[in-house]
Amino acid sequence: MEFNPAAIRIGLGFDVHALAEGRKLIIGGVDIPYERGLDGHSDADVLAHAIADAVLGAARAGDIGKLFPDNDPAFKGADSMVLLARAAEVVREMGFEILDVDSVISAQAPKLSPYREQMRANLADAMGIPVDNVGVKATTTEHLGFEGRGEGMSAQAVALLVRK
Ligand SMILES: Nc1ccn([C@@H]2O[C@H](COP(=O)(O)O)[C@@H](O)[C@H]2O)c(=O)n1
Ligand SMILES: C[C@@]1(CO)OP(=O)(O)OP(=O)(O)OC[C@H]1O
């Protein structure tokens, strides 16, 4: 593939959600069995949100809250895979191609590595890119901070885009 180096863009995304009783734990589009789930207006998929912000950030297209306001009833309980697919569509409409995405989830528990491949497949499918171009990692914070105390989870992502 040929491209102008000046057309390469990088984006960074970061998101946090609190853990709450009576909520499903959805991460990377996977419904993970756990005693609590992430709280939010949508399904609170912290990883999908961080990746959407990385993708939108690289295209200078604002952020997830601009596209999907958290006071809009249309997004109550929304499937974040649908939101991520829409974010990818927005940047594509602006003339960008998503080349590569990497990410890390900070969660003290549960163990997330058994779900990594399904998350990568779901995220790649939503963005319309090969699974090889989507990285997902997880870390505890060694019991430090809000993630380490089990109060919530965070996710960070980077995205590399090229303007065609
Ligand atoms: N929720 C998590 C957290 C971590 N992992 C995996 O464990 C490895 C070691 O984690 P440390 O925080 O002790 O460095 C990490 O590299 C992940 O592979 C996990 O699956 N789920
Ligand atoms: C995803 C949206 C959708 O209304 O709501 P939340 O699930 O609260 O998630 P957040 O990361 O706060 O991003 C804002 C919104 O775009």
TrEMBL record:
- The feature of type site (Transition state stabilizer) is located at 41, 140
EC code(s) of this entry: 4.6.1.12
InterPro entries, per this entry? MECDP_synthase (IPR003526), MECDP_synthase_CS (IPR020555), MECDP_synthase_sf (IPR036571)
Report the function annotation for this chain.
Involved in the biosynthesis of isopentenyl diphosphate (IPP) and dimethylallyl diphosphate (DMAPP), two major building blocks of isoprenoid compounds. Catalyzes the conversion of 4-diphosphocytidyl-2-C-methyl-D-erythritol 2-phosphate (CDP-ME2P) to 2-C-methyl-D-erythritol 2,4-cyclodiphosphate (ME-CPP) with a corresponding release of cytidine 5-monophosphate (CMP).
Q: How does it assemble?
A: Homotrimer.
Q: Which HAMAP family match?
A: IspF
Protein name, entry field:
2-C-methyl-D-erythritol 2,4-cyclodiphosphate synthase
Protein's organism: Slackia heliotrinireducens (strain ATCC 29202 / DSM 20476 / NCTC 11029 / RHS 1)
